[in-house]
Amino acid sequence: MAGRFTRGFVLANAALLVVVGVVAYLGIASVFHKASASSGERTASATLGTVTSSVTATGNVSPAATDNVSFATGGTVTEVDVALGSMVTAGQTLAKVDAAPSQASLAVAQAQLEAAQETLSNAQSNGGQTPAAQAADQYSISSAQQSVSNADVALANAQSQLARDQAACTASQTAAASSASAAPTGGGSGSSGSNGSAAPATTPATSGGSSATSSACSAATQDQSGVTQATNSVTQAQSSLTSTQLSVAAKEYVSPATLAEDQAAVQQDQATVATDQKVVDETTLTAPISGTITTLNGSVGDTVSGGGSANSTSAGGSGSAAGSAAGAASGSAAAGSASAGSSASSSSGSSSSSSSSSAFLVISDLSHLQVIAGIAEADAPNVAVGQPATVTFDALPNVTAAGQVSAVSNTSTTVSNVVEYEDTISLINAPTSVKSGMTTSISVATKSVTNALTLPSSAITTTGSVSTVTLLRNGVRTTQRVTTGVQGATTTQIITGLSPGDTVVLPTVSVTTTGGARLGGALTGGGVGGLGGGGGFARAGGLGAG
After folding, report:
1. In the chain, pLDDT over 90 holds for what percent of residues?
2. CA distances for 523 relative to 217, 459, 480, 485, 519, angstroms
3. Which has the closest alpha carbon to 353: 306, 317, 311, 391?
């Protein structure tokens, strides 16, 4: 009896449990069905807010400026004043090569220049005559002038002697004439003698006066000849002086063509000196920019060929580094200064890596970092200098850096048959953990509106150029055409068609499971999952009875 009671009791309880289970299942299914029905129609309201559209891309961190520095003058390296990783400032001495050969060439060029300058100076002042020749010419002129002066003195003396002798001759002649007129004639009282003895008494006096007159007059005649000779000497001396002066003047004359040649020689020698001085200066290698030595390929004792120069490979030009630093303070205006060189930014990174291997050393400005990102051609027109950006790093999951577009490329590149435009984003106050070469993802905010009417983007249906929403007003659904504006990641700006507070219906989907259970939920929803008729598990949305 007890055994049968026990079996009956067990069977009864089992039957009761089955009934309870069925009832519970039906109740639960009904509840979930109602919940699914109510949750199948999800809504959203139009609200005021901010919508930001963005463009995303990937790239790698690189220095804003990199210079590949090599000696322009060849020779043997005598000094290396930096080491790998050293911080340097612009103008700092980095290394030197032996300057002795270059200094010797400079000394020769300077001597040639001094000689050419002296030749030009002489030509401009005294016709190219050397000081000794000029002194000799001056002595010749002085001697000729002295000869003229001596001749003038001799002429004056001769003329004075002539005047004296002419005066003496005249006086003698006058005295002789007076004596002749005073002598007695034969018919006077003195002739009373019978024999006329008184007349001969005057003969000696007359004879003496005639002799004196003849002597004085003869001297005057000779003086006249002396004056003539002295006059001729003066003429000859003056002619000699004139000839000497003309000869010296001819020596001192320089033709314009000769003067031009001398000036050209000076200019050429000056250029040679400047070139040789530059060669000497270039035996010392200095830093063209401030930064860190990231590559060092030489040491003391090495022989360098020369002919190199600092080769800046800063993307976007020199302004990109400044734009990075100034962008935080002055926004797009600072970054705008860097856009001029944007078209060359895509090639500068590759040229840096290829040319750095041959450079004596490489300086990188690690204090200003940037990312050169490939922007898809569909997004490229929306990117402009000055736009803000957000940069994340694959190797630093919890690090985010602010950035700013500092250069926009106008030249495309093709990567795996995909057209891209390599734009430059300067990092603003990048964290110290960020290193050159790191892989990044960037998001550039291309447009942003504030206090705009917004809706979830999933509520909008767009066909061609027409956008609509399902408006729910007083329980009645209507299709409402809207005009959209800026489209963000999850929301879209509504320009016309809705007012703040309007309610719209979000789209839903229905999926039937193999066990007859229905999965219902909004596209963006995430309801509670449950058991279905076939025992399946719902990933999203609510579960209703089939």
Report:
1. 50
2. 157, 10, 20, 23, 12
3. 311
Beta-bridge partner residues of 170: none
In 3-state terms, what secondary structure has residue 390? strand
Gyration radius of the chain's alpha carbons: 61
Distance CA 60, CA 442 (A): 10
Q: Which helix (H) or strand (E) holds 27?
A: helix 2-39
SS3 270: helix
- Separation between Cα atoms, residue 439 and residue 61, nearest integer Å: 7
| Cα 91–chain centre separation | 16
φ/ψ (deg, to 5) at 314: -70, 130
Q: What is the pLDDT of residues 505-529, one digit of tens each?
A: 998 755 554 444 444 443 433 333 3
CB 125 within 8 A of CB 309: no
Contact 44, 459 (CB under 8 A): yes
Q: Give yes or no for a contact between 449 and 492, defined as CB atoms under 8 angstroms apart.
A: no
Residue 470 three-state SS? strand
CA dihedral 449, 455, 459, 464 (to 10 degrees): -30
Question: Could you report how far apart the first and last alpha carbons of the chain are, in Å?
Answer: 46
Cα distances (angstroms) measured from residue 366 to each of 358, 374, 404? 21, 22, 17
Asked if residue 407 lies in contact with residue 315, where contact means CB atoms within 8 angstroms, the answer is yes
For residue 51, what is the enclosing H or E element?
Answer: strand 47-63
Instruction: Record the tokens describing residue 64, joined without a space.
Output: 């804003």
pLDDT tens-place string over residues 264-285: 999 999 999 999 999 999 999 9
pTM for the structure as a whole: 0.52
- What amino acid is encoded at 120 in this protein? L
